[in-house]
Amino acid sequence: MIRMNDFTSDxxxxxxxxxxxxxRVLDSGWYVLGPEVEAFERQFAAACGARxxxxxxxxxxxxxxxxxxxxxxxxxxxxxxxxTAFATVLAIVRAGAIPRLADINPVTGLMSVDSxxxxxGPRTRAVVLVHLYGQVAQMDDWKELCESAGIHLIEDCAQxxxxxxxxxxxxxxxxxxxxxxxxxxxxxxxxxGGALITQSQDIDxxxxxxxNYGQSQRYHHPVLGLNSRLDEIxxxxxxxxxxxxxxxxxxxxxxxxxxxxxxTNPQVQLLAQPHDINSHVYHLFVVRCTRRDALAxxxxxxxxxxxSHYPVPIHHQASCSGILIDPAGLRHSExxxxxxxxxxxxxxxxxxxxxxxxxxxxxxx
Length: 365
Ligand SMILES: *Cc1c(COP(=O)(O)O)cnc(C)c1O
What we know:
single chain, alpha/beta, 8-stranded mixed sheet, binds pyridoxal-5'-phosphate
């Protein structure tokens, strides 16, 4: 089976370096928030061109902490998309704020600027912009919308590690960016991890207090924070994997290019071309097909795994009945949820595996 994720075929030298990193941490006897976390925070901030990075426990917490660091909470509305990982919306709710869901642009799956404009009202304090599938797009429009409305722009970068808009890395364009290092992400730990990046010293300082029980100095808690610390082993592993990230991303782009030229079946639609090569890191390669479930079954019999991101839009989740949405409805999100299919595009795929995936898609009738 050609899998969506395969953590066992990484380069042997990366595996060696990771084993050494784990050994180093075990020998140090220091396990949570220490020198490895600080080193990784510096390296990740530098890779992003951000002044600050704050290691946290996961991507969902990174979004919650970003909102709380900006003093967004009860009574405040936050606009985001219905086509995202559930964590995006759950983080807004956990911060005490009220999510309002916008529709998507059907050719990219990304939140629609026009729909978001309809969602902005007097109580809106921020947009959480999800760089879905690894795509960074229309950042000039998003900045203009947020600046003219006087609201914050938080980037959900859980799928867009080091994607660039012109020369700016995702997460450095708005007020701050929330990253996830869940194992399946482009930069993944061997467990949970996350980070918040920002150019603001104030947000950095607040986030560092929030992640550790709201503790400013030992046993002093000026705010009610959370327990969202990054541990030393994950930070040490992430630092090793960060060295490989650009190379792995380049491989994803080669695979995506092969899919774009190779997939010729008229029943299988591709999403729009990215703005430029650097603006898409292909966390996921997503196609659309009106007979999506039949296509997934056909791929399975051809030995190709596929998933759907996401088959149920947030506003159709049982726990989200009554959630606020664009008054014009979320038609494109619903259509996308019914037709989208993600095919393997992780960096460890061989050329032969890529060819098998293309053949499997083209032989679907
Ligand atoms: C994975 C993901 C998250 C949540 O990250 P976790 O580390 O799993 O908490 C948030 N938003 C998006 C878009 C994601 O893909």
